[in-house]
Write a structure and sequence with these properties.
heterotrimer, A alpha/beta (445), B mainly alpha (320), C mainly alpha (277), A: 445 residues, alpha/beta, D-Maltodextrin-Binding Protein, domain 2, 2 domains, 5-stranded mixed β-sheet, 16 strands, 45% helix, 16% strand, globular, C: 277 residues, mainly alpha, MetI-like fold, 13 helices, SBP (chain A)
């Protein structure tokens, strides 16, 4: 019976340690259920409440460092900050939503939000805010497109926290070296300049410096679609419009960069982040959002002064989509007013600037974009003020359509872009096939 | 211990398969006594009671729930609407599903054949060693305990266009290969990684089985004049049959469920050439098409069940 | 004489072959270790550099400063140990019953277990979560641990091993008047140390690396496990490769310790079983 005794000792010691561990955590867990006042009592200013926030910013979150300051100013509100991994954020969200236990606030995005909005997961912020953020009219402090992209019949499901709009990054030193005086503005110029920038630098017969980054996904294709006067969906969001002649021409051009002109590098997912290609000089130019500024600065400090940023490429017109991170409040939240106070706090100019300073992204709160901290010349970017370019982009850009199944639709477009870039199908075939899928998805909406 | 030999060797012959068929016979032939039989077996039920309860609560109930939801447009948030077998017909007609099915079958066959082959060779080699046997055993096993996610990340670096592998073949004067970007090759790269990660497990199991084959059977074969290959075929192979059965049945289930390495290394690409059924289940789950996902899971389960039943029949039939 | 030499040459080639295989086998892990000491900028630098210029612990320190690593580590060890202990115990008993005891419904029940292995977790995740949530188990240790005790694979493995256990010994014990429980502890468990060790390693490994369930069921820092913490190093913008590799190295350590501890049992189980000698 020696075995039995050994086992029971082991078992009881493990159980004991569990009891200890859960004991010391008992206080903070289940904060939702524990100290919930009924909705009516919320008016009481002295009522102690805890709001929970789910944040998917990762290590460079601008939100977490601001919490002590908020709690000092609002001693009756405690913020329970819960970091969530980006990759599984929506798995977590799906489970929480279906199981009925949501936080009060979350960082959300346009990719998945439409679906959840359709299902009524988020509270309408227009009603909650009375149309004002920190005393200013909502429409005056956020870009029109960003607000438009978050508005449905049932209201405003989030306020912009950071924004994303594409501009052209280029290596001014490589352009100079190739005898090019100005960055390309149009597609034609891209091809012309691109030929000079694409090189075999070490003479082994293979190209190791490409003029342009071609990502086989919809984000990077979309600016080309818009620049060519195309649209993703028809205005009533009922049918696919990306397989119009404008769309096909745009994809033709985009895939030709790799297959015909051979000036674009097809950056396949297995290569990981393309920042590596920026570092080793494989990529001379690319289009992406403002957060890449922070990325290059952090990982390639030796490239100081070599990068510059200008408007995204035009063909028939200027083109970029706009997107970004929003802050949303959940319909099931018991502390919506406290949650809104926190959002207002985060949006204050001096706090929104932290988005730029801590995580290198562009604040969605426009007054913060005007602050001197964001607008000082940056030696990394040739002593220019790169934020100006992005500010213009977010004003001129086109928001994505708001349909519940946007995630699936964008995936279908990504598949089509990949097929064309990999030369699996002609752009017409690839987009027509995607359009068929998208139309059947939309028919079910 | 000497006296154990004799009955044991006799048992070796008919040890393996009888399990699956016998109790049924009890059930059928002695029906009137079934309750008495069950009461008499209360000790046995006691041995499986807790696993059974856990199974029912945490697996079976969610599975049944999913089964009912597979006939609805359930999205987890709104109340589901009954739509009949629409999910099933949609899936069976979908081109993507056919492609994913082919990819899954391809992955399973190649990775299982290669994995078990390599593992058997390793086990036979290690079994023969006189020294360092333990060292090899332990070291070959280490990839098995390395998380698949980590394995996939490291191999992504290796397969990278400018990675280790292309560097080595470049030294030998071969053009670089798009290990994960060429749609004809990507699946085999993933299979290679999977075999690398999993072979230690099969190796250990084979080795355990090899070492359980009594030495005197080999000696007897030798006296009969059997050479290396013949004794392998007559002694080793039959001795490993249980092990093959186990590895095959479990291996098919495991291979069909391949996910992590695809998620990390290719995300189903290039152009869906590595998209498997489970990957599709995962994507649709993320779209919150939970009714559709459930239907897809049940088609998947049904296929695995058929394959497993065929395997059981093939493996255990010959025992009769 | 000739045969002896032939054997020696054969053995030499076996060693050669196995050693070559070993290098291929360990290279990716060596790469992981090497990456964990590199500055972030050198991860993608090729030709590959196996030994970093300086052995800096920056990445390891970063892991500790960015997440409450010690707490996650403790939670992981504790939950994985408990899951392993319960799973192995239950599987040994049930596997033994399925292999060596006769009772009505045995095959059907066994098939039941097998079928649950065949359905992907994503399919049952939401119903399971809702159920656990209705038990009030969100963010608790029981919610973290109990649903992870899945016995199907273990029962399958144990049963397969015990099928080849000689009945003679069990029958001898039967004659001595041993109860099933006594037989189990005194004969079955000691004779099947190898499969117990294998199962323990696998269960621990699965629990140790499980990301999705702990992520869903825990919210507070005090409940979270290591894989959830590690997933935080991958954001929408970037992957912190070096931190991930440093974290992976540290998370591999308990696995290797467990394996090295268990493998003694493992070997004894195989060689000292009643079958041989």
């Amino acid at each position: 019976m020696k075995h039995k005794r050994k086992m029971s000792i082991m078992l009881s010691s493990i159980l004991l340690s569990i009891a200890v561990l859960s004991g010391c955590s008992g206080g903070s867990s289940n904060s939702n259920a524990a100290d919930q006042p009924a909705a009516g009592e919320q008016k009481n200013e002295n009522e102690q409440v805890t709001i929970t926030i789910w944040d998917n910013y990762g290590a460079t979150t601008p939100i977490k460092p601001l919490i002590p300051k908020f709690e000092e100013e609002f001693p009756n509100i405690k913020v329970d900050f819960q970091e969530q991994p980006w990759d599984n954020f929506w798995d977590k969200m799906a489970a929480a939503a279906s199981g009925g236990e949501t936080p009060d606030i979350a960082t959300t995005g346009m990719m998945w939000n439409p679906k959840y909005t359709v299902f009524g997961l988020f509270a309408d912020l227009n009603g909650l805010s009375g149309g004002k953020v920190n005393g200013n009219d909502i429409n005056s402090v956020y870009s029109k497109g960003m607000i438009e992209a978050a508005t449905t019949e049932s209201g405003l499901f989030g306020v912009p926290y950071d924004f994303d709009a594409y501009s052209l990054y280029y290596r001014s030193d490589l352009l100079e070296e190739a005898g090019v005086t100005a960055a390309p503005k149009s597609w034609d110029e891209l091809v012309e300049v691109g030929k000079k920038l694409t090189k075999d630098t070490d003479g082994d017969g293979k190209t190791d410096q490409f003029a342009f980054l071609v990502m086989p996904d919809w984000y990077h294709y979309e600016p080309f679609l818009y620049a060519n006067g195309g649209k993703v969906l028809t205005d009533d969001n009922k049918k696919a419009a990306f397989n119009s002649p404008e769309g096909v021409e745009a994809l033709q051009f985009y895939s030709d960069l790799v297959n015909k002109h051979k000036i674009g590098v097809n950056w396949t997912p297995d290569r990981g982040s393309y920042v590596a290609g920026l570092k080793d000089g494989t990529i001379a130019m690319f289009q992406d959002g403002p957060y890449v500024m922070g990325l290059i600065k952090n990982s390639n400090p030796e490239q100081e002064g070599k990068w510059k940023i200008t408007d995204a490429l035009s063909n028939k017109q200027y083109g970029t989509h706009i997107g970004g991170t929003y802050l949303s409040i959940f319909e099931k939240s018991q502390h919506k007013e406290a949650a809104w106070k926190f959002i207002e706090f985060l949006s204050r100019e001096e706090n929104a600037v932290q988005i730029y300073k801590t995580s290198g992204a562009a604040p969605g709160y426009l007054p913060a974009l005007e602050s001197t901290e964001v607008n000082s010349p940056d030696p990394f970017f040739g002593n220019e003020v790169p934020m100006n370019v992005f500010k213009a982009a977010v004003e001129k850009g086109t928001p994505n359509p708001i349909v519940g199944s946007w995630q699936e639709i964008s995936q279908a477009i990504s598949d089509a872009v990949a097929k064309a870039v990999y030369n699996e199908a002609t752009p017409q075939e690839a987009l027509d096939e995607a359009a068929e899928i998208v139309n059947s998805i939309l028919a079910q909406e | 211990m000497g006296e154990l030999y004799l009955p044991l060797t006799e048992r070796m012959e008919n040890m393996s398969g009888h399990i699956t068929t016998e109790p049924d016979r009890i059930l059928v032939s002695r029906k009137p006594n079934i309750f008495r039989e069950m009461i008499r077996s209360k000790e046995a039920y006691g041995f499986i009671l807790i696993p059974l309860i856990l199974l029912i609560v945490f697996s079976l109930i969610p599975m049944l729930y999913g089964f009912f939801m597979s006939f609805t447009n359930w999205n987890g948030l709104q109340s589901p609407k009954y739509i009949g077998i629409e999910n099933y017909t949609n899936i069976l007609q979908s081109k993507d599903f056919h492609k994913a099915l082919m990819n899954t079958v391809k992955f399973s066959i190649v990775s299982l054949a290669a994995g078990m082959g390599v593992a058997l060779i390793l086990a036979l080699g290690i079994d023969k060693l006189t020294r360092l046997q333990n060292f090899f055993k332990v070291t070959y096993f280490i990839p098995v305990i390395t998380p698949m996610v980590v394995v996939s990340l490291v191999w992504s670096l290796i397969y990278n266009e400018k990675g280790l592998l292309n560097y080595f073949i470049g030294v030998m004067g071969i053009e670089p290969v798009g290990w994960l970007t060429d749609k004809k090759i990507a699946m085999y790269s993933i299979i290679f990684t999977s075999v690398w990660q999993g072979m230690g497990f099969s190796m250990i199991i084979f080795l355990a089985a090899l070492q359980k084959i009594p030495e005197h059977l080999y000696e007897a074969a030798k006296i009969d004049g059997a050479g290396g290959f013949k004794s392998f075929w007559n002694v080793t192979f039959p001795g490993l049959k249980d092990t093959f059965a186990f590895l095959l049945i479990y291996g098919v289930i495991g291979a069909f469920n391949v996910f992590d390495q695809i998620y990390v290394m290719t995300a189903g690409g290039p152009v869906k050439s590595t998209e498997t059924i489970v990957f599709q289940i995962f994507t649709n789950f993320r779209y919150l098409k939970l009714g559709y996902t459930s239907a897809l899971s049940y088609i998947f389960l049904f296929m695995l069940l058929i394959i497993s039943l065929i395997q059981f029949k093939l493996i255990y039939k010959k025992e009769e | 004489m000739g045969e002896f030499r032939k054997k020696k040459i054969q053995l030499f080639f076996i060693y050669l072959f196995l050693s070559a295989g070993l290098i291929l086998n360990l290279a990716p892990l060596a790469w992981m270790l090497s990456t964990s000491f590199k500055p972030g900028s050198e991860v993608f630098r090729f030709p590959p550099k196996w030994i970093p210029d300086s052995l800096e612990l920056v990445n390891y320190k970063k892991v500790f400063s960015m997440i409450p690593f010690e707490r996650y580590y403790l939670n992981s060890i504790l939950s994985a140990l408990l899951i392993t202990f319960i799973t192995v115990l239950l599987c040994m008993m049930a596997g033994y019953a399925f292999a060596k005891m006769k009772f009505p419904g045995r095959n059907i029940l066994f098939m039941f277990f097998l079928i649950t292995l065949m359905i992907p977790f994503q399919a049952t995740m939401i119903p399971l979560f809702r159920m656990v949530s209705s038990f009030g188990w969100i963010d608790t240790f029981q919610g973290l641990i109990i649903p992870q005790i899945s016995t199907a694979f273990g029962i399958f493995l144990v049963r397969q091993f015990m099928l080849s256990m000689p009945d003679a010994i069990l029958e001898a014990a039967q004659i001595d008047g041993c109860s099933e429980m006594r037989k189990f502890w005194h004969i079955v468990v000691p004779m099947n140390g190898s499969v117990m060790a294998t199962l323990a390693i696998f269960t621990f490994n699965t629990a140790w690396n499980n990301l999705l369930w702990p992520l869903l069921v825990t919210n507070s820092e005090k409940m979270r496990t290591l894989p959830v913490g590690m997933a935080l190093f991958k954001s929408s913008r970037d992957i912190d490769w070096t931190a991930i590799m440093a974290g992976s190295v540290m998370s591999l350590i308990p696995m290797i310790i467990l394996f090295l501890l268990m493998q003694k049992q493992f070997i004894r189980g195989i060689t000292a079983g009643a079958v041989k000698e």
